Amino acid sequence: MNPGQRDHGDGDAAPERGPRSAAVRAVLALCALGLFIGFMALGVWQVERRAWKLALIQSVDERVHAPPVDGPGPADWPGFDATAQAYRHVRLTGTFDHLHETLVQASTARGTGFWVLTPLRLAGGGTVLVNRGFVLPERREPARRDAGPQGEVTVAGLLRASEPGGMFPRRNDPAIDRWFSRDVPAIAAARGLAEVAPYFVDAEATPGGEGAPVGGLTVIAFPNSHLVYALTWFGLALMVALGAGYVAREELRLGRRRRHGDNGSSRPGDDPDADPHR
After folding, report:
1. What are phi and psi of 181, to 5 degrees?
2. Burial group, residue 135, by CB count within 10 angstroms (0-12, 13-18, 19+)
3. Which of 15-19, 102-106, 203-207, 273-277 has the highest mean predicted lDDT (pLDDT)?
4. Distance CA 217, CA 205 (A)
5. How many domains does the chain have?
6. pLDDT tens-digit readout, 64-120
7. Cα angle 36, 40, 42; round to 5
């Protein structure tokens, strides 16, 4: 290599780019602003959802542990919102119709088996489906377990909203009497029951004979990961802000360098790499 030639091998640094155009910078700024606002809005929404969930949990806890009140009767059923009243501690008085009970497949802390839903003929008229509790598969036949309460009884438990349809692929099939969810209207139609409440009741645990349904197994759990979600969205917003700040700083630096070069610093005599013999 001649003394006047420059080495263009891999050791030479690539020339530094200039600042982006004003249009490109504007587009980048708008994108960053949109992402920042969007992530912040999602974070705030999750904070609001968390407040709503905590209020719901507190409300349900108060209903569950409150003294039982009379369950809604036939006069209250038109337009009744069972979801809004879910887990209210209620009591009902009537007579069980054991001939029209329904077994619904269940998975509990005691294993897999069935819920025993039995119509309760109310003393004041109308019928409420009562989930008397859980039985193991070997106790599904009424002859293999306690006959259950006879005559007029008072049942206490938690009011529950109907569970329509089941979930694919485990969907209810009334034609073969296979039930995966406690769908009150469907069960009532399959059993030929008239004037049935738009809710059912999970009965409390009560003493029973051998193989009697085990009540009091209602699982009350409300997932509450909203704080984690909120922190995630706020973290993404912070990352966008930091990234935008870094890009803006680099653009300012490149702009200053270009302006400095335009003022004469790039003359050939000032370039340390320039060949003085050229």
Report:
1. -140, 160
2. buried
3. 102-106
4. 8
5. 2
6. 999 999 999 999 999 999 999 999 999 999 999 999 999 999 999 899 999 999 999
7. 120
Is 159 in the same domain as 230?
no
Residues 6 or more apart whose Cβ sits within 8 Å of residue 22? none
Q: What pLDDT does 155 receive?
A: 95
* Dmax (CA) of the chain: 118
Q: Residue 95's domain spans which residues?
A: 88-203
Cis bond leading into 74, ω under 30°? no
Tens digit of pLDDT for each residue in 232-277? 999 999 999 999 999 888 888 887 887 776 655 545 545 545 455 5
Residue 12 near residue 216 (C-beta atoms within 8 A): no
Pairwise CA distance, residues 246 & 252, whole Å: 10
* Distance (Å, whole) CA 251 – CA 29: 12
Reduced to 3 states (helix: H, G, I; strand: E, B; else coil), residue 26 is: helix
DSSP β-ladder status, 69-70 and 89-96: parallel
Q: Verify that 188 and 92 share a domain, yes or no.
A: yes
Give phi and psi for 178, each to the nearest 5.
-115, 120
